[in-house]
Amino acid sequence: MTAKRWLRRFTRYGMITLLCSALSGCWDRVELQEMSIIMGMGIDRKADGSTRVTAQIIDTSGSGASKGNTQEGKSFLLLEEEGPTLEEAMQDFFGKSARRMFFSHIAIVVFGADYAKHGLEQALEYFERNRDFRRVQHLAVTGGTAVETLKGATGVESISAKGILELVINQGNTSVSLESSELLFDNDFLSASHAPILSWVDTNAKNEAVVKGIGVFRGDRLAGLLEGTKSRGVLWFLNKVERAQLELPCENSKHTGSGAMIEVRQIKVKVSPVNGHDEPEYQVRVNGKGEVKKMCTNEKFESRTVREMEVKLAKAIEDEMASALAYLQKSKTDAVQFGSKLFAKDPRRWRKLSQEWPEHFTNAKTDYSIDIQITHPGMISKPLPRMYDPNSSAPKFNWEESGP
């Protein structure tokens, strides 16, 4: 190959290499110090009807706690804007920020109770139309104001929005609350039952963020806040209980915390509409396996005792479900998705009842069939004091008889 051809080929490959390097460059990159990374948002309704938006922004200055809006010992800042509507409050953020606002890393959006009671329609509309927001961002409701919840302490987490999300996830694993993304909320909002739910986060007397239960919605308006066993009662119906610990009463015991404790796992719940009734009726089947965490005093892990605990356990679960359902029926809020179940099985019948479904839901009846098999006594079969047997204990070593 001649030198001329080598030169031509070298020039051609050189130009291709330069072009590829130019195309792969970060021509539109934005440095971290030039961005305002939003990790959490709070939306509140003020007394005059205006909207207050709180943004929790990562402090990228490296200065740590300082005066102003930076929380002491935390690596974030809280910025607030107000406006007649959510859109106008958000526009003030964009108009006043010297940095580019980056919303794609939002961990959680918290709605204040007053805002949620007046409806989330405006916020959902804004999120759905704005491409800066992700549909997997988590939503939550609080019993107070969103701004105070975002200020709540979350242990070792320096950014409270991320800490609150971790709390929600952990409590979801123990069936106190549940993870509630925007996409899941939208799906339940558009379902036949038209009754989505959100996790309920709040602060305690020590200003610590806590997950208390769930908020149930009738459409886009908050209908009530449920905590404890009522919250779990709703999750039973939705087959969202991963594991649950229930206390069973012991004979001659009147004190809370002194009963047997059973942890239920491998839970499957099926809710099926039953045909042939004027008002809706449902068959609720619950199956799972239980493990003993604590037994009553003087009880042994034997077939008779296990059977008695299984009967008590089924009754306890039914009571939780019935109590939660009674609350929902009183408020005409179908958060257990009975309407969606009926629509899936019998669309024609659903269409006949749909216009007056809240009234039909209040009259819905349920038949429970609960089978939880206690299969394991835990890591030990009986309490340690009862495992002690002096006849089988090793003798104490006598130093005097042992000699030099």
UniProtKB/TrEMBL annotation:
<keyword id="KW-0449">Lipoprotein</keyword>
<feature type="domain" description="Spore germination GerAC-like C-terminal">
    <location>
        <begin position="212"/>
        <end position="378"/>
    </location>
</feature>
<dbReference type="GO" id="GO:0009847">
    <property type="term" value="P:spore germination"/>
</dbReference>
<keyword id="KW-0309">Germination</keyword>
<feature type="region of interest" description="Disordered">
    <location>
        <begin position="381"/>
        <end position="404"/>
    </location>
</feature>
<dbReference type="InterPro" id="IPR046953">
    <property type="entry name" value="Spore_GerAC-like_C"/>
</dbReference>
<dbReference type="Pfam" id="PF25198">
    <property type="entry name" value="Spore_GerAC_N"/>
</dbReference>
<dbReference type="GO" id="GO:0016020">
    <property type="term" value="C:membrane"/>
</dbReference>
<feature type="domain" description="Spore germination protein N-terminal">
    <location>
        <begin position="28"/>
        <end position="199"/>
    </location>
</feature>
<protein>
    <recommendedName>
        <fullName>Ger(X)C family spore germination protein</fullName>
    </recommendedName>
</protein>
<keyword id="KW-0564">Palmitate</keyword>
<keyword id="KW-0732">Signal</keyword>
<dbReference type="InterPro" id="IPR008844">
    <property type="entry name" value="Spore_GerAC-like"/>
</dbReference>
<dbReference type="Pfam" id="PF05504">
    <property type="entry name" value="Spore_GerAC"/>
</dbReference>
<dbReference type="InterPro" id="IPR038501">
    <property type="entry name" value="Spore_GerAC_C_sf"/>
</dbReference>
<dbReference type="InterPro" id="IPR057336">
    <property type="entry name" value="GerAC_N"/>
</dbReference>
<comment type="similarity">
    <text>Belongs to the GerABKC lipoprotein family.</text>
</comment>
<keyword id="KW-0472">Membrane</keyword>
